[in-house]
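QUALITY CONTROL LOG
STEP: pairwise intake check
CHECKER ROLE: data steward
CRITERIA: each record must contain a sequence immediately followed by its structure tokens, with no blank fields

ENTRY 1 OF 2
RESULT FIELD BELOW
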Amino acid sequence: MSRSKESFNKKEVRKKNEKKRLDKEKRKLKKKENGKQSLDDMIAYVDENGVISSTPPDPTKKTEVDVESIEIQTPKKEVVEEQTTDLTGKVTKYDNSKRYGFIALQNSNDSVFFHYNDCIDEVDYGDKVIFDIEQGHNGLKAKNVKLSK
């Protein structure tokens, strides 16, 4: 028996699907002919330098690692005690609208945050100041900021 009134488009779709099925069977047979890979062929090793290779590493080069010395989290910041000595520096940045800024220490490249509430005198950008340091929420913070004479 012949197929009933099959359109050209339907014939093309049927041929396309048949071709896909045959291609899939061919690939399956080809894979079978190549043989199965063993687990040993799929294993990769990492040597002491971090290089991936197919040969296992030399057990004589193995080193023991002290498990207790491995830190999993970030270390906590050390609490800096308040310095009572007067430090000198220069105001490098100051925002008048938000009333905070940074002071560059005179003897180093470090900078310290300060807020208007911690100032004794009125300070502005470029002023030389004397101040003390205390530990703030996010790091060191200047307090008792006053103009240098």
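ENTRY 2 OF 2
RESULT FIELD BELOW
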Amino acid sequence: MTERLTGKVAIVTGASSGIGKATAPAAARAGAKAAIAHEQMESGGAIGKLIVEL
């Protein structure tokens, strides 16, 4: 992600694995507020915690 995402909201589906798992934290690091959707509570919850810690 080359553009700064400050002030934007990134809605990421499939955040518990694969591309979604990589995209959600990357969007948060770029300044976006990341809204995640996932089916797997344990791994998706870990991604949510990571994003909050960023």
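INTAKE CHECK: passed for both entries
DESCRIPTIVE NOTE, ENTRY 2: The chain has a mean pLDDT of 82.
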